[in-house]
Amino acid sequence: MAEQKAVAELSKQSLLSESETYQLGLAEVIERLSVSPAEGLSQAEAERRLELYGPNELAKEEHEPLWKKFLYQFKDTMVLILIAASILSIFQGDVYASLIILAIVIVNAVLGVIQEGKAEQAIEALQQMSAPKSRVLREGQQLMLGSADLVPGDILYLEAGDIVPADLRILESSNLKAEEAALTGESLAVEKAAEFSTSEKIALGDRKNLLFSGTSLTYGRAKAVVCQTAEDTVIGHIASSLTAIEKEETPLQKNLNHLGNILGIICIAISVIVFLAGLLQGGDPLKLLMTAVSLAVAAIPEGLPAVVTIVLALGMNRMAKKHAIVKRLMAVETLGSVDTICSDKTGTLTQNEMTVQRVYADNQRFEVKGIGYAPVGEVLKENGEALATQEVESEALRALLEVCVLCNDAKLNQEGNEWSILGDPTEAALLSLAGKLGYEAGQLKEKYQLVKDLPFDSERKMMSVFYAGFQDGVRSLTKGAPDILLARCTKELVNGAERELTAARKEQILAENTALAKQALRVLAFAFKRGEDSESAESEMIFLGLAGMIDPARSEAKEAIAVCREAGIKPVMITGDYSDTAEAIAADLGMLQPGDRVIDGLALDELSDADLEAEIDQIRVFARVSPDHKLRIVKQLQAKGHTVSMTGDGVNDAPALKQADIGVAMGITGTEVSKSSAEMILTDDNFATIVSAVEEGRVIYSNIRKFVGFLLSCNVGEILVIFLTTMLLGPQFTPLLPIQLLWLNLVTDSFPALALGRERGEAYIMDRPPRDPKERIINKEMILSIAVQSIAIFVSVFAAFQLGRYFYPDVLLGANEQILEFAQSFNFWAHEGFSPSNGARTFAFVTLITAELLRAFTSRSETQSVFKLGVFSNKTMNKAVLLSFAMMLLVVFIPALDRLFYTISPNPRDWGIIIGLAFIPFVAGELFKKIYHRREA
Fold first, then answer.
1. With bands split at pLDDT 50, 70 and 90, how would you rate the model's confidence at 291?
2. Pairing of strands 473-480, 597-600
């Protein structure tokens, strides 16, 4: 009854606050949670609390319904213009043209939905970890329950290897260590103890009486009580904060929307000018209105949205093959404008596998090769000579390796070529060291027999084990902190003999320890003693040596950072680890240059936003930072005008990943929270993949510029042809009909444009600085290029039209009732009175198409001549041009189609004239590049 009365008052408001969880005494924590540590909760009370607080799981990211994804594809201004144009065509009576435009818009939307759906499926394939189970005490009985069923007040039992299922206060502990890299960025396991107490507010990584949801135990055992679950955990707070971060439009979206706005203004302006000019020439107002609308519709590059979507989708596919899954189509191009890559250290720039790199034994220094936990790599003497496996001459080194293996609770597991560990990463690194010289745990533990042990604790800072089977009987083998262990040694083993350890000699050994520590190595000392007396085992020991280890930098990350610097991209390390370790890794990777700074979280707190903004470009390493710090850093970089990519794998990276212009999560070691927050996921967890993705982003943007310039110069050329011809010859002398223009824009131009989207990147694309994200696609160079080529198109098509009129004189439409009736049956626009003959329009139509197909080759590079690239080196372009040319031939030679498109079949004379005139824009494009880019061409 007492328990029922106490828990009846328990409500959601009475949960422990974050600070109370570690500041209150154990008795008060238990009282606040209304639970008996000996009995646990009753099943009825657990069910009541489950109903009150809900399951212990984070809210999963809800996928947008299909209809929302589909509608999202219609947000772009250009797509909206196309829809408006389609509606106008219906009012004009041109149903056929309207249906074609709508079909293109719908196909474009479907492609976008399908591609983004593939990305979602790939991400879901990464989320295959089964829900963990927990050992829970309820009604005095231990049960195995799914972690989702845990509630505040549950008593749990945990041991090495367990995943912590909620935020816990430790009730009892034995030699407890937890790996918290995913949460704090700290690469080493953290000591935990039930006895720890504080009344001060301290950092997350210093709360030694707590275990956090999502972390894992690497050593020891614990009994703990659940204090917070689900969204109330530290991980939950981070996940909840992500919803407040809104993603901005990508640079490409902004560019395309700006382009759409410009085209919208141009459409209106053209319609007004043509309408007013026709009125001044005495034209019929209704027919002039329809003419103006038709011209405005034809001026829009209808194929552009579809081409952009397809090119981005192809880019996504290429990236996926290179181990980078991009979740959002438009984000592909954003990578090309990234000028700052902020990266977490642990597991991203480093291996996230502790590795022994230096050993000091027998008064000799040894260098250890190899990376990670694999027991593969040479051990070199100072003269560079490699030690022979299982034939180590130094007795001290042999004894040190035996201590590494026997005074060790970790295990190395091999699956194929991959090595994993169970236990503490530091101990796993010692097993790997021993394995490189042929000392395997299985063999040694068969040779020697464990007698007893003295587990590690935070007061002694040592661990000892007793083994029988040595020639001199039982030995105690000890490892621990160098300064403490050395103080307890009276002798050392050198040249196979024991000798007194003098004060001067201890100073020399401590100097070796300091030298290793300055390299950001974590140093352990090793010793032994004969006998099995537990009381005296850790005094008057015989010193064997030192081992220095570190979570080493990835070799491929070093190469990637060098490429980043050449590409004008600034790499920045943001980590929860200590400054010395972070600086050493950054220096090893080549991230630090003269004048670059390293600061920690405390120094960062002292900087105002204004001061940080002023100094941030000189800071390359941010150490000992919290999740809030990471978010602030990314925001300040963005405020300075940088396009920021943030890479990481931990829960602590999630807010910064979402805030960044491109968040990049690790697919293998990354937490689910980080994956859901990122725009891109690396399926190989390789930092170097980000560089490949940036290069792909630059290539995609470069190719988008190429086909945008190609399509717009065609459309501007069409405008000039129709507008100037109408002004010069009269409104009835329109050289191209709307159906012909629609065919040109949707069919003929789209295939070469797609081929431009498949163009290989120029060799120098990673040798130039990132583009300014504010830079418009249509910049000064493109405007001049469009102007030159549009004028060339007008000259060639107008000349062809006039020659066509000469060879095929103008006709009265009324004299050919059959053609007029056929045209009107499809609601196509036709002028009364004199009009250009079908022959003249065929000259204009075929010349324009042929000119565009030839010009597609010169559009393959904005700077280099097509002859330098190799005219036919893009096989996709060759096929696209042949296909488009073949489709044009169908229009002019098949009887049913030539009547529909008002064309005739050109004779050899006509073809000679047409091909000759079609080369004018090609020559103009090559000359423009030669003159504008004298240095590059």
1. low
2. unpaired
Burial per residue of 528-560, b for 16 or more beta-carbon CB atoms within 10 angstroms, e otherwise? bbeebeeeebbeebbbbbbbbbbbbbbeebbeb
Residue 778 pLDDT greater than 70, yes or no: yes
pLDDT digits (tens, 9 = 90+) for 404-432: 999 998 899 988 888 888 888 899 999 99
258 CB-near residues (< 8 Å, 6+ apart): 776
CA 808 to chain centre: 60
Q: Quick one: which of 150, 127, 153, 124 has its CA closest to 41?
A: 153
Q: So which residues are the catalytic ones?
A: 344
| Residue type for position 919 | F
Average pLDDT over residues 87-94: 67
Question: Of 123, 121, 115, 101, whose CA–CA distance to 72 is shortest?
Answer: 115
Give me the count of residues in the chain. Answer: 937
The string of pLDDT tens digits covering residues 199-258 is: 888 878 889 999 998 888 888 889 999 999 988 888 777 766 655 555 556 667 677 777
Q: Residue 424 is encoded by which pair of tokens?
A: 């503490």
How many C-beta atoms surround the C-beta of residue 53 within 10 A? 19
**How do strand 133-138 and strand 141-146 relate by DSSP bridges?**
antiparallel
Phi, psi of 904 (to 5 degrees): -120, 175
**What predicted TM-score, i.e. pTM, was given to this entire model?**
0.68
DSSP codes joined into one string, 165-199: -SEEEEEEEEEEEEE-HHHH---S-EEE-TT---S
DSSP state of 648: E
- CA–CA gap between residue 843 and residue 803 (Å, rounded): 8
User: Which among 701, 876, 829, 779 has a CA at the least distance from the CA of 274?
Assistant: 829
Q: Which residue has the tokens 């009995």?
A: 39
Which residues in 883-920 are b (16+ Cβ under 10 Å) and which e? bbeeebeebbeeeeebebbbbbebeeebeebbeebbeb
Phi/psi region, residue 851 (left: phi>0; alpha: psi -120 to 50; beta: rest), is: alpha
Cβ 217 vs Cβ 176: under 8 Å:
yes
Pair of tokens at residue 401: 């390796």
> How far is the C-alpha of 725 from the C-alpha of 844, rounded, in Å?
11
- Which tens digit of pLDDT belongs to each residue from 596-638? 999 988 899 899 999 998 999 999 999 988 777 888 999 999 9
Q: What integer is the mean pLDDT of 182-210?
A: 83
Helix (H/G/I), strand (E/B), else coil: 667: coil
What is the pairing mode between strands 167-179 and 190-192?
antiparallel
